[in-house]
Model the fold of this input.
Amino acid sequence: MVNSEGGRRLGSREGVSGCATKLKPLQLLSIASDFPMVFALLQMLGAGTVAIYADLMRRYISAPPGAQVLDIGCGLGAHREFFFGQDYLGVDISATYIELASRRYGAVFKVMDAGKLDISDTSVYLSLCVATFHHVDAYTAAAMVQES
Done:
């Protein structure tokens, strides 16, 4: 997956014999974390799943006006639109995603390790984490839950 110049090769990986083979889905997800355009493409291809998440959020997740909402693993900020009346903070470990989300929605995003949140323990009314746990190991997932 890394070429001789240190960059990633999209669409193939070196096989044992040295020939290129197709990427597996989990490898594509790993690449998507480094390349926002790949993430956006995956979001478009998975529009049905994204629509289900949006419907579930509209129906079951709410917070009173002005309440602090913490979106852990916010990515490009797709859930921001559900919390314009609240004090929203999106956190993600990817500086690239945070930069893009901030450009789109404003300065309500921070680069942060969800296992080591740098926010007041009593300030959050609602924490949410959508489609993030499959990107981390069990130890990190436990730390994320404990921190939130």
Summary: The first helix runs from residue 25 to 34. Strands lie at 13-14, 20-21, 68-72, 87-92, 109-111, 126-128. Residues 119 and 147 are 9 Å apart (CA to CA).
